[in-house]
Amino acid sequence: MSETRLIHGFHAVFSKLRSAAGDVREIYVDAGRSDARMRDLLKLAETAGVRVMPVAAARLDGLAGGARHQGVVAGVAAVQRQLKLDDVLDGLDEPALILVLDGVQDPHNLGACLRVADGAGAHAVVAPKDRACGLNATAIKVACGAAESVPYIVVTNLARALRDLQEREIWVLGAAGEAEKDLYAVDQRAATAWVLGAEGDGLRRLTRESCDELARIPMQGSVDSLNVSVAAGICLFETRRQRMTRA
Asked: Over 90: is that where the pLDDT of 78 sits?
């Protein structure tokens, strides 16, 4: 049998069962929990033919590494689908909407960004191999199922990946607090890739220079920056708003 990785939390496990039940090897559940949510999970697992093992809560704590698992941990195929950006772009029937993350190293932020990307209908999240936390169990849980629905594409060279997007006629917009234009003044109705850096550090110099244009989120209060997932939501949903209201 192939190697496995662990995911935890109801959203992550439900989503995996629904999208790729064949990748789920086994599910460990809290033997003392029998509420409606757990019953729904057990029914779905039974339908999918996945083995379920009731265990003590202490064992779940160990499997999840101390993270909040909600009473469910699943072992799934370790090798995730390795999509390339071209694979995603070639299959689109609308202008691309891509979220690019530069230097996001907190898995909670990555998970939240994936969830936002799913909500806004982004077609992929792109991140560099280095200076990034990677799609670990914590990020998957925080994503509430979005890690299974939004392609997460890891690239070796982020600047080169941005050039590849530009060659596909995708406008590369970098979010930067010092930009002259705010995001509401930038036309985002065509294919767009939003590039965001980590909170505090922002975009790296080479990443910034690789963007076609920079835009800022207009801040009205005393703070000068937002959490990267909040900023991603503002940017992506503004793109969607413009597309829905096009003349």
From this structure: no
Which structural domain range is residue 18 located in? 4-77
CA distance 239 to 233: 10
108 closest CA partner among 240, 227, 194: 227
The partner residues of 29 in beta bridges, in order of sequence, read 54, 72
Burial class (CB in 10 A: 0-12, 13-18, 19+), 50: buried
pLDDT score of 82 more than 70: no
Question: What is residue 83's predicted lDDT score, i.e. its pLDDT?
Answer: 72
| Residue 162: closest CA among 236, 98, 113, 93 | 98
Residues 147 and 240 in one domain: yes
**Of residues 133, 127, 126, the one with CA closest to residue 108:** 133
**Do 51 and 99 belong together in one domain?**
no
Residue 241: pLDDT band (50, 70, 90) is very high
Question: What pLDDT shows up at residue 199?
Answer: 73
Do 67 and 106 belong together in one domain?
no
Integer Rg of the chain from CA: 19
What's the pLDDT score for residue 80?
A: 60
Q: Which residues contact 196 (CB under 8 A, 6 or more apart)?
A: 99, 100, 101, 102, 104, 174, 175, 203, 228, 231, 232, 235
pLDDT 10s digits, 191-208: 999 999 987 778 999 999
Higher per-residue confidence, 202 vs 228: 228
The CATH number for 221's domain is: 3.40.1280.10
